[in-house]
Design goal:
Keywords: Hydrolase, Signal. The protein is mainly beta. It has 6 helices and 58 strands. Helix content is 6%, strand content 32%. The strands form 15 sheets. The protein has a 5-stranded mixed sheet with strand order 3-34-33-32-31, with no helix packed on it. A 4-stranded antiparallel sheet has the order 2-58-57-56, with no helix packed on it.
């Protein structure tokens, strides 16, 4: 039978955002949800969803009503991160650095964190082959997104994660150790080894997706085999703070950095002194410029890569441009002492602004070839199948060309790709997925990464999809739980970002980093008759935990004792860890959002996909795959409320159970939804709308206790007219009203991210507020403070932030002893009962903690981090 294709992911969720030292990005309405994303889904359905969302994600290079070059609409995925941290205005560089310093100056609570997800996470776990699992797809063991890779010929491999720092292996992969935990940014943009063997790290992920953080600059490690990065190892001054770094390149005694604020250079010999700004196409939009506070500033100086002529390092080509298109997009080279746009003589490689977007270069070791991947804004905006313009080679070895096209998306689709359906073909996310490298021993042996991994051994005349998107759809695939992926070989996880070639014990390997972590295969590896590699190995052995959780849920494990822990992840579904597990499984696929787990039974759980698409199971979604021939054997059910279908919920929308009654659930979109059947719910029709927040408004936080419900909302949610509010009412539909919150007043006009209700008094509630205070944010009503308290059911609020550093707050929970724990973008803080001052909880790296929850007996606090897995700490240690 044909393979069911059921990967639950919104195909174009990813859009530019900024977090660590934020610069606001204009954003608008979320794309509507075209029906349920669950169940057996054909690629045609996936393609239809992409087409529906495409217009909402891609700012076009045509003037809008405001005279700008970008449309206002960007996917809600970006809103979830960027809007929450920037609104109501623009955040000045340095905000996160100051917050990190402030947190480090807090006294500690005592106690220490324990990572409970530092073990293998098998995305193909045969226990969980229910209707909405991706198990048997072929990705194997996974971890969080890897943005960059580096490797040497001594068996050392370096993996730079999106939000969990840089990791080192000295065994050709595996047995990883973190080496950047002391830095104020754990977001990786670029990794590169120079000729002296030093490891360079550019912080700030440049994939322009929904949860990418800005960085704190560029760092260098002189002894990468043994040392660790420190703040003292930063190169230059603070010029590159609060930027993203797409690539680091070397030539002429300089290191070149392609950043979100132009192209910069620095001497590789003397590491002190300021970085030099080589080129910014729109310098007025840079910090300190006359248009630095413009809503479009973050788009106006994006640099993607630098190509340096190996025969003459003075000849440099810059690839510059915003992936959705802008007038400045193009290739530039220096002529007559200034940078000039290249307009002709390039051969097949386009030079028109509409056809130059995200670009990656790669040079052969012998200097005989230069290669390039080009994503086209025009294709992104008009072609439903792909945004890829092509892959090119300069056989002169010079980045000035002439360039010849050696691949396009149609040809790659025909070369063994899993993406062959209209609407979803190779390069459909080329603005997000790109890498390129050349075998050092063979100038015509090239690896290219898009959604999949492609290989050519003849300079581009022929290609093979050595790492297909998944194995669903291939004749070798089977859902048989006795096999990982039928008779297919393991592939890599989808969505490629980083690549490196290195040697271990004299054998060369290619290492790829993607949304599922790190994989390797021999450079001279084997392929089957379809061109798929037969020798990929996952290096995600559990010693590297960069899992990006949005949520966590905990319930008693009735079968094995102890507890069962679940959590929703970026592009890695939902993990489930039962008390007797040595390997975590994945019982839901795609992007995992919020999570509900019955404290009394950890197999009763609900997982949100996106836009309030909710799936419920009462057996942990254990299934042997028999549902594929008998639909009645499925044990997961789609129970999405109506705001999912209309697109009137946020990308990661709030979901909560009543603290006093786990059968009463609250979900927030435009409407406040209530259902009272608990985990026995089987249909979205069982939800009741108890309150309409109003057109253009959408819930950002919900909480309930004893039937009393609190809802935080925003609308508009971007920094153009941002507004927020609180609604309060009862789960039975009575008593609903909006709380009066003036634009300037006690509760700031910023994103309301979480409530924590006193378990002993439903009128006593705490509010966590995201973003930065007015010291960093230029916007109406930005105010001050991050934690507020009400003792009268939300009618009035008092700022209880006290000595809490100015850092975005994401979640809060009242501990059984009356203390208050708050999750922030840089760790967890705690206020002991009866006190007013805040303490830092443990010593987590500078990682965002998006949700806190207590275990069933209240003795353990669980922290869902977005980049370093799930951690626990005993509440009794918080003193």
């Amino acid at each position: 039978m044909s393979a069911p294709t059921r990967k639950r992911r919104w195909l174009t969720i990813c859009a530019i955002t900024a977090s660590a030292g934020l610069v606001a990005i204009p954003a608008g309405a979320a794309p509507g949800g075209a029906g349920s994303p669950f169940g057996v889904r054909a690629l045609a359905r996936l393609a239809a969803e992409r087409e529906h969302a495409r217009g909402a994600i891609t700012p076009r290079a045509t003037a809008d009503d405001d005279g700008g070059n970008e449309a206002d609409e960007i996917a809600e995925g970006a809103d979830q991160y960027a809007e929450a941290r920037t609104s109501p205005g623009v955040v000045a560089p340095g905000a996160y650095g100051a917050a990190w310093a402030g947190l480090n100056n807090l006294t500690g609570t005592g106690g220490s964190w324990r990572n409970i997800t530092d073990l293998p996470y098998n995305s193909d776990d045969s226990r969980y082959r229910d209707i909405d699992s991706n198990s048997s797809g072929g990705s194997g063991d996974v971890t969080g997104r890897m943005a960059a890779m580096a490797a040497d010929d001594d068996g050392y491999v370096y993996a730079g994660s999106a939000g969990g720092g840089v990791w080192r292996s000295k065994r050709g992969g595996g047995h990883w150790k973190p080496i950047s935990d002391k830095l104020p940014s754990q977001s990786t943009g670029a990794l590169a080894l120079d000729d002296a063997g030093r490891l360079w790290l550019g912080t700030g992920e440049a994939t322009t997706n929904a949860d990418a953080y800005l960085g704190s600059g560029v760092y260098v490690l002189s002894d990468p085999h043994h040392g660790t990065f420190s703040a003292r190892s930063r190169v230059g001054g603070d010029e590159l703070e609060s930027t993203t770094v797409h690539e680091l390149r070397f030539g002429g005694g300089k290191v070149w950095a392609a950043t979100s604020e132009g192209v910069w250079s620095h001497s590789t010999k003397k590491l002190t002194g300021a970085w030099k700004l080589e080129f910014a196409p729109n310098p007025d939009y840079l910090p300190g410029g006359s248009k630095a506070d413009d809503d479009l500033a973050a788009y106006k100086n994006i640099a993607n890569d630098i190509a340096i002529d190996p025969k003459d390092p003075s000849k440099v080509v810059l690839a510059v441009g915003w992936r959705s298109g802008d007038d400045y997009n193009g290739f530039y080279t220096r002529s007559g002492g200034s940078w000039q746009r290249i307009s002709s003589g390039f051969g097949d490689l386009p030079t028109d602004a509409g056809d130059v977007g995200n670009v990656t270069f790669a040079r052969s070791a012998d200097g005989s070839r230069y290669y390039a991947v080009d994503q086209s804004p025009e294709q992104l905006n008009t072609n439903p199948d792909s945004g890829l313009e092509g892959i090119y080679v300069s056989k002169s070895g010079s980045p000035t060309g002439p360039w010849t096209k050696i691949a396009d998306y149609k040809g790659l689709a025909a070369d063994g790709s899993a993406l062959t359906s209209s609407g979803y073909m190779p390069g459909v996310q080329a603005w997000y997925n790109q890498f390129l490298t050349v075998d050092p021993a063979d100038a015509e042996h090239v690896y290219a990464g898009l959604e999949e991994v492609f290989e050519t051994k003849d300079g581009g005349s022929t290609w093979s999809t050595v790492g297909p998107y998944w194995n669903f759809g291939f004749s070798c695939w089977s859902i048989d739980p006795a096999k990982q992926t039928g008779d297919c070989n393991q592939t890599t996880h989808s969505d490629q970002h980083g690549v490196a070639i290195g040697s271990y014990h004299g054998k060369s390997f290619v290492y790829v980093g993607n949304d599922g972590g790190v994989y390797k295969r021999p450079v001279d590896g084997s392929q089957d008759a379809s061109g798929h590699a037969t020798d990929w190995t996952s290096l995600n052995d559990g010693t590297i935990d960069t899992l990006q959780y949005y949520s966590v849920g905990i319930g008693r494990d009735l079968d094995h004792g102890g507890v069962s822990v679940t959590g929703g992840l970026q592009d890695n579904g939902q993990s489930i860890l039962r008390s007797n597990d040595t390997v975590m499984g994945s019982n839901f696929g795609g992007d995992g959002g919020d999570t509900l787990t019955d404290p009394a039974n950890g197999c009763d759980l609900a997982q949100e996909y996106v836009y309030l698409a909710i799936q419920v199971t009462q057996n942990c979604a254990v299934n042997d795959g028999s549902w594929s021939t008998d639909a009645a054997k499925a044990t997961s059910y789609n129970v999405a409320p109506a705001d999912n279908a209309t697109g009137e919920a946020r990308f990661i929308a709030p979901l909560a159970a009543d603290a006093k009654n786990s059968s009463t659930w609250i979900a927030g979109g435009r409407h406040v939804w209530v259902q009272t059947h608990g985990y026995a719910i089987r249909s979205g029709s069982e939800w009741t709308s108890v309150y309409d927040l109003g057109a253009g408004r959408t819930a950002t936080a919900v909480a309930a206790s004893g039937g009393k419900v609190y809802v935080g909302w925003c609308g508009p949610c971007n920094n153009q007219g941002f507004a927020r509010g609180i609604a309060v009412g009862n789960a039975d539909g009575t008593g609903w009203h909006d709380i009066t919150l003036p634009v300037t007043g006690t509760v700031p006009n910023r994103y309301l991210s979480g409530f924590a209700v006193d378990p002993n008094n439903a009128d006593h509630v705490f509010l966590a507020v995201n973003g930065f205070s007015r010291h960093w944010t230029e916007g109406p009503g930005a105010g001050v403070g991050h934690v507020f308290e009400s003792t009268d059911g939300g009618t009035t609020w008092t700022d209880v932030s006290a000595n809490l550093p100015d850092v975005p707050a994401d979640s809060a929970v009242v501990t059984p002893n009356g203390g208050l724990a708050v999750a922030t973008d840089l760790g967890v803080v705690y206020r002991a009962p009866g006190r007013t001052r805040w303490q830092r909880v443990g010593s987590l790296p500078a990682v965002a903690v998006l949700q806190l929850k207590l275990g069933p007996d209240g003795s353990t606090l669980y922290a869902a981090t977005h980049g370093r897995g799930i951690y626990t700490i005993k509440v009794r240690g918080l003193r």
